[in-house]
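User: Need the bound-state model for adenosine-5'-triphosphate:
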Amino acid sequence: MKRILKYLWKYKYLYIIPILSMFIAIGLDMLNPVIYQKIIDDVIKAGNHGILSRLLLALLGITLGRGIFGYIREFLFDYAGAKVTFDIRNDLFKHIQKLPFSYFDGINTGELMSRTTEDINNIWNAIGFAIMFFIEQVLYLIIATTLLFTIDWKLALICLSIMPPMLFLAMKLEKKIGEAYEKLSDQSAVLNTTAQENLAGVRLVKAFGREKYELEKFFKQNEENYELNLNQARIWAKYHPVIEFFSNLVLVVVISAGGIFVVGNHITLGELVKFNGYIMMLIWPLRLMGWLTNIIARCNASAKRIFAIMDVEPEIKSPANPIYPTKVQGEIIFDNVSFKYKDQYVLKNININVPAGSTVAIMGATGAGKTSIINLIGRYYDCTEGRVLFDGVDVKSLDLEFLRDNISVVMQDTFLFSDTIEENIKFSTENVSEEEFNKVVMESQVDDFVKEMEEGYQTVIGERGVGLSGGQKQRISIARALLKKSKVLILDDATSALDMETEYQIQKALEKRKDITKFIIAHRISAVKNADEIIILDKGEIVEQGNHKTLLLKKGRYYEIYSEQFKDLDILADGLKEEVI
Ligand SMILES: Nc1ncnc2c1ncn2[C@@H]1O[C@H](COP(=O)(O)OP(=O)(O)OP(=O)(O)O)[C@@H](O)[C@H]1O
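Assistant: Bound-state model below.
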């Protein structure tokens, strides 16, 4: 809560007017019963009809003022609350963007989604209205109780004696409802995840004929959800009528005991009406107290979860005095690099020299450590031992933003946003000229298929738009990376879904890019054979290194892969074989 108060403090001036309006609105509310009393005692009983019009005018004024100040209070509290929630959500999102890959290894997306939506909403509920309501209700309780005692302390004591059981029951109801709500909220998250996974993986479900299993899983969770909803209704049905009974009982007691007090001339009829007015002002605060404390408690729990994320210090960040090289060449050196995820080494003693503008290809079985190697260049993870040098400077000494600006990565899992093809390509680059755009879409063979589309580059990809093939998605990702104009380009298995011809065309275009250092992870010989250096990785260690020719002559691991991939070509004539390879 303290941390939320810090955010609130920033907007302290925005709270002055709504707080003042709240006090005025409460003050006006307190005047209402006084006017009623005067109408009954002075106008109806004493026959002083002359003041009626003034009293009615006052009543009208109070009602109007109450409405206006109530509106100002409500709107400005909401306004300030929205600003605070906006800041918290932005800060949280900004912080999440700074967190390293390793953080996301240990948390699932669903959990982070809950933090940025449900938990933020809980905070919004509390600071948008619950805290304001809570303060307001406490003020009503204090002022109305005091005023009751000023009318007649004995009557006040009699009537207030019924209040504690009502408060107790209201708190108990809210406690039970709160617990049931938490269970329902957790269960709804599971239900949503199941539905989301099923919908996202609908093709897989159908391909494996798992509809029945998925349906049963969903039905079971929906049943649990239904039960929990029912449980909430049962709790409500159990407590609510009793609370209603006590609320009504208070009124019965006020009228009965108050009637006796009026008959006994202890108070006037008008005073009884005034008394009744203040009693009414107590019932709602008492009934709402549990509900409001629940919302505030929920906000507290959510704030704890949100600030726990905000307190995670990104392990990978710019050094205190980062280096900004004035000229970037793109030379990369792995100097005796080892790396482990938690306790397990996945890379051992890696030494690679990649001169600026050259191409290095990395091959190896799945899990050999190919992605882990390239992840160290842009510091998505930091190496455990050794150094990765960018133009001779340890990447850990460079400004992180500068480093990443100079690296373009096409990841193994292509991810495109539900936006136009053009926006997907321009994703990370600002001020793109038409010429630059046209160049990269040609190089990445995107233009080939986009020009066939009715809406061309304005075609929306995703749920509302057309679907794309795996190869088309890869081509768009390559165009996106090329447009970034970084000195280092990393293609992590980025051409695996392409046909040989398209892959060849892209390679030809990349070969012409002598100003870019290229890292290519691939499984096909055709994708790596023209690289200046080919690295064969096995269980995190380099087992072979050289160019296509030297590695073939070596007749080692590379040669084995080569033979395996081209064994069927033995039957082809030598000339044709040469061309295919
Ligand atoms: N985030 C992670 N946390 C822990 N271990 C990981 C993580 N990512 C990869 N590993 C492990 O590190 C090893 C190397 O993985 P890496 O992804 O670098 O292999 P790869 O050669 O790129 O494989 P593939 O060809 O399947 O992409 C594997 O044993 C893998 O299980």
